[in-house]
Structure formats: structure tokens, C-alpha cells
Write a structure and sequence with these properties.
649 residues; 13 helices; 10-stranded mixed beta sheet
Amino acid sequence: MPDVQPQHVAPRRARTSAPVVDVEQAEAALAEHYPRLVRLAYLVLPPGLGRNRRVLTAHALAQRALPRRRSSPLIPAQATGPSHARRAEGRGGDPGYSLLRLKVVRTALEAGRPLKWTAWPKRSQLPPLLPQVWGLRLFPRSGGADELALDQRLSALSGPARAAYVLRGLERLPEDAVRRLLKSVGVTDPAAAVREAARVPAQDRLLDSPEFDPCSLQARPTDLMRRRQHAKAALAAAAAAAVCGALLALPSGGWGQDGAAAPPYAQNPADQAALDPAKVTKVTPTAWRTSARTDFSVWPARGNLTGDRALLRRALAVWARPGDSVQVSTTPGTPSGAPAGPPQLLYAGRVDAARVVIFYDGLRIARYAEPANDTNGAALDFARVDAATGAEAGAVVLARADGNVRYLTAPWVTGAAERDLLDPSARATDLRPADGVTAPLAGPAERTGSCTSWNVLQLTDGSGTRLLTDLGELTPAHLTVGRPGAMREASGAAELRTWSPFACSLAAVRSQGVRTVNAWEYARQPLPDASGAATWVCTRADTWRGGGPRVLAQFHTPGGRYGAVAAKAEGVAACGAKDPHVLAGVLWKSAGGVWYLLAAGSEDTASIRTTGGVSGSAKGSLLAVRTEQGVQAGLQGTLGDGRTIGGLR
């Protein structure tokens, strides 16, 4: 990559007075930056309002920020200082946007203040009259564990500190501009707010995630039972008139356009059966011994609360219509609607400080968790598991606490252990499963910082030993080794050594709905300086939904602990069973300081040639060309059958 030289902008002289903003100018800024302003309002509003009200209030505040007449912003665009005049992605120089942002922050902070009997409430402190959606709750799409943790940290901040954090991270404003803006909206001690916000680590990328996007929403019905009760009298009074009017309007012998379908929100027997705890399916403990299937359908119901109908009723009701306070998460491609019929119960019991219920409906695993002494703060998680069998149906995450994970294992599992994938020679630690529940395992999914270990779950059954890894979802991903179409379990000594340098690369596929990850050593290449042979490995993460696989071509030199990612791609067939071919290259510096372009293809590659900034070619599947640091080049390979393949990028 060529060096990128920073561009210096000559500082502008600060204006002595704030620019006057026309209504048309503000309207243009609102139309252009509306999603940004709504996200800003949503992040500054207190999370205690609930996600549905936060969404509607954020839209209302952004729309009400439009002035009714010519107005002058209190913070001129140039007040951010010369070195930061263009940091907010081109918005800092727009007086219209500055005015709207100022009003949005002011009203969002007002909305978080408690109501007082001694003063009339501000308009922003009341539920918005408009926009309004009847019969539905709207909330942003759920993010991952990092977004949830950030939302919890922001909820612990005061309103001004939360505004300071968002202005600094989302708007890219420097601290002096943040203090001036907070002072302009009435914050008494802006410096204290900035200091409080600084205690939360900066995670600017997460502020742009779908978790905090009030313009990309999911919809769920409100409490249908309560709505029916409230509307019962009105429906009874209007029923006779509606029936008479319909009969008069219909032609002779005719019916409505929906035929024999029940009216909306009717008491559907199938829906009621799906939510009846007495009709939940429970498989006998020995069913798996005589069944030809090894999937979730033969898991027995385990746990000490399988007979607690009140708990099961709450879990099923939350599944059908989760409230505003319920934290809902789904793996990509997994529907989160109510079950189509009575689901199968896999577990109901107390785990650490929570009550946990796990269901299976033939397509999904649904886990409901609530505090042991309360029903507030419940969580509902979904994972797609269609066609899971064997190792893929070997374990489910039962609970997470303090970075540790407890698993519920399949009834055919005879042993469970913890193994560090980075240290293939270390012995596995027994997790002592009792009634299928393992001891806590130090999971890698929520860990941040440097990667010094990667603990995986090792399961033993009558067919052998298998490795599964936690990627932040309900079901761990199955690890395999070998050429696509002929993969084998990654549990042997040689297979563990293959995976060891590339274990930390699994972090790149967290929370992606990954089903299996295969590591294929497709080439070994002697290094030009005779310092040994490097290894080329392709790791492919396939998903439960079938699409969106992620492929990494990685390069490992002798003696190195970690592999280096040479190329990556998403949604490609390379390195998979349908196209077991791969070609990748890397710039490598020898011990003598000489730079080379090294490339390797799978064994059926007949020749390789370079394009772009490097000129070279070679017969066979390996290429080494002397070059210079920072050059850019492409690769093209020819297979034995004459087909041409491009280098993975």
C-alpha cells in the first residue's frame, strides 16, 4: 500500500458572530442528515424510557428541531477550532446542521430530566404525540455483546455525560467544542460531564452499529391480551352494526375476501396451544438410545424446574410477545417470531443467579433467562439449528457470567473438557458434566485485548472426540480440518497443531451465525532465504443460513506463534466443497532484508502469474518473486483442467 500523506487545511479565522440560518437551509440539513440526528437523539435519551419510546421520541425531537423562522445557532460551525473544522464528515461547516444538532441535544437532555410538580413539564418530557404507531412496538435491530455492553455503560452515565460521549464519538467533536455545546444547551458543569464521559472507553465504531439506528427498525405487536380487554366493550357494541352492514353490502350467498379465515387477533387454537405450558413436548431420557437421529429432537428435558408451569408460561409468553425491557438477540438469518406449535423443552432450571429455559421448535433454539428472584431484566436469545446433527447438536450455551460459559451437552456425550487451542501440547481440563451441565469454561467470545489463549469445548461420545468453539452465540461452532469434502475432526495431535497458529483468527467470525469452521493446509512453500518452509492454510466459516461464508487465506512462517491473514473474502465458493481451490499471495521480508512476493495455490494449480506492479510467473502451485516493499500486485492462476482462478483478496 502506498503511503498516504495527510492533507493540511489552512485554519480559518473565527467569525465574530454566529451565522443566521434560513428555514430552507435548516430543512435541507434535516433532510440530508436526518438519520444522523435521530441516532444522536436516541443515544442521548435515557435508556430508562424503553426502546420503543426512545425510537419515537428520537424521531419527534429531530423533526421538532426544524426552526419556524430565521434563526442563529449558538455554536458557530467554526468554533470547533481549525484542526477540527472538518472532522465531522463534512457536517461541521454547515450552520444549518449545527443549529439542528444543538436543538436535538438540548431537547434530548430535557427529556431525561424528572418531572416536577412545581413547574410545567417541557414538551420533550412527555410522550410524543407524533410520530405514533398503533398496535406495534418499534425498536432497533439487536446488536452483539459489545453493543449491549456499551449501552449498559451509557445508561450508567448522567445525561450530560452521555451527550458528551456521543458528541465526541459520533460527531467527532473535540473536547473544547463539546464543552461549549453543552454549556449552550444549559449544562451547568460541562467539564465534569466530559470527565465523566471519559471514564467509558471510546468505541466510536459501535455508535454507528444497527443497535443504535432508530431508522432501521424491527416491529412487534403490543400486549394483545391487554388490548383485547380494553377494546372488548367497544367491539361488543359495534358487532351488531358491523354484521348487519356487512350482510347488506355482500352479494347473495357471498363472503368476505378472507373466506373462512378468523378475524384479526382472534383466539387461534394453534397459537394458544403453542403457548400452553401443559402441551410442551418432553422427550423421554432414553429416546436417543433407540433413535436413528442424533439431533436436538431426541434431547430429553433436563433441569430441576421442568415442572414449573409458571416459569414455562412466562418463557412462552415472552417468546410470543417480548416486552420493551426484554433483551432479544438473534443469530443472522434466524426468525424471532412465536413458535408455530408446542415446542420441545430441552432444559428448565436454575443456573448460577438465573432461571433458564431452553426450547427447540425444529428450526430454532430459543433460550429464555430471568433473574432468580425477579422477572425484570429477562433475556431472549434465538439460534438457527435446522438440520443440525452429531457434533452440531452436541452442546448449547446454557449461561454466561463473568466471561465464563456453561454448556448443556447432548445426552450421548460421555465427556466434556476444556482445551486451549493455542497450546496443542497442553492437556485438556475435565469440565465434570452433571446431568449434561458442564462446569464454567473460560470462553473467548467476550474477551478483548491481545489473544494469548483460545479455549474450546472438547466433547467425547461413542463416535470419537470433537472440538467446538464459542463465537458469542447459543450454539458453538464445529471445528474441522482437511480438504473440502474430506474434512475430519480437529481433535488429533496433528490436527491441533494445524489449528494452533490460526486460533485467534476465529475472532473475525464472531456473532455471524457460524455453523462450522474448517482449516485446510493447502500448500507448504520453501522460503527463498532457506530458513524453512512456510505453511498456507485456508479457513472457511460456513453459516447456518447457507449464505455469507467467510474465507481467510493465512500464512505461517517457521517458529511463528500466529499466522498472518494474507487475503479474505465473503460470500465466495473458494476453499469450499463446491470449489476446493484457492490462490493467495503475501509480501514477505527475509532475514536479510529482501522483499519477496510469495504466492501459493491448491495442489491442482498448474501455473501462477502476477499482474499489476510485479512481473513474474511460475509453473506449478508456488511462486516467489523478488520485489520491493509496498508494491501492489494481482494474481492469476491456471488449474490443471485449464480453468482460470483469481487470487483471493
